[in-house]
## 1
Amino acid sequence: MHVKGNFAYLLVSLLGFLLAIAVLAQYPQIGGDQVVMFLIEGTLIFGIWSIAPQRIWFRVGFILISVGAINILLHAIFAHEWALYVNLVVALLFYLFTTMLAFEAMFTGEQIDLNMIMGSVCVYILVGITWSTLYFFESAIHPGAFKGIAMELGKQRFSDLLYYSYVTLSTLGYGDITPVTPIARTLAYLEALFGQFYIAILVASFVGMHITTRRSKS
């Protein structure tokens, strides 16, 4: 059973994460890769605390959080660049896991309330972060996969990819950053398709629940 209001904590943590990444990108003297990893870990903690409804899911989330925490410690000791990649892999798995739970909570609800609306926003934000992580790995494996983006490892590039991800998800298509490699292009149009279908399905589901609620009251 989901605790009413649980999506509020996750939503605040996700918005804080996006804002913090932007601030770090604009003011790099504040911190480096380790700060980014701490921010990612923070979203994982809030995610599992907010919406894990069953003990087994909580254990899965706790394992991922623990792996991320150990990885941050290893990065602090050895300062290897691969630590950021490991942290992003853990984050990617967790974002997929959290998105699945959020979907389940949203579409099994009986009526529309503020918590469900916040949950729908959380899913949208999580999808954007998930795709930006996929873009990050593609650009790391194939440098130059995106034209118009900074190539250094770490927060600046990830910030650019977050921006590109949400521009693509919302189909704004500014054109200042463009995918070059076939995989990058495929990821881009799949994200755009998902964004369009998500909005359509979400609106249809909310309308259906609203009609059902009104009929049950009449």
## 2
Amino acid sequence: MRVPAIVRWPGKVPAGVATEEMLSAHDWYRTFAALAGASDKVPIDGIDASRFLLGESATSGRESILFFGPDGSLMSVKWHNMKAILRYSEGIDQPIVAPQWPMLFDLASDPGELYNIMATKMDMGWVLSVALKFVADYQKSVAQYPNIKTGAEFEG
């Protein structure tokens, strides 16, 4: 999912800046907490992009976004303008499909995800290794810090 965002805070956030930097929904929690001086109060994954919003950093700090499906399993990985699709669905009422080989799209030149690069330019396969590194990092993180089961007590 790609959606635009607008941030306005006169005197704090520079006006007239347009960027293609990424943030996930989780990043806003940590970022707003940092701007309020309470970054230690947010026990949720995400990055603090406050320096980016305030114009103190050229990047948000977010390199990739992992997208999970309704079953909680990984669907795709976005890295900069490249997107690797591991599973997909043609609609909410359609089944989830795992292609024989991951699909790869260059969102800068193909925002509609119409042309699977892996079908025509297999020399771009190296991008999959970068995307899969983010998957491995995620799996390592979950192994070290398992998700809390629904209804379980939380001490953190």
## 3
Amino acid sequence: MDRVPGWLVIFGVEYLKNRDFEKAIQRTFKIARGLVEGELKELKRRSPRYVEILKGIALGYNRWSLIRDYLKVKGDNVPDPRLYTLIENLKKMSWIVEEDGKYKIADPVVATVLKS
């Protein structure tokens, strides 16, 4: 990644306010959680499946077949072509990246929020 992540900027601002590392980290994560949850709500409006796929990936179901099985266990039997399209859309929207046939959440802060 060749740009400064937004969370780092927020942390810098928070750290400059108090010069307290722990408080800055806590405040940054609180701000980040709110922003991420807002983005996930918007994404869920497009399709609730997007958020479930992201949760599955965050929990370690990082291959196509594992994502499919995760959704089945959650009660959603997504047709294979539709699942493919949903995953491709998440990649295009930069929510996830694919490396060596495995998917991961592009932003570790987002992954942390999804796990909690």
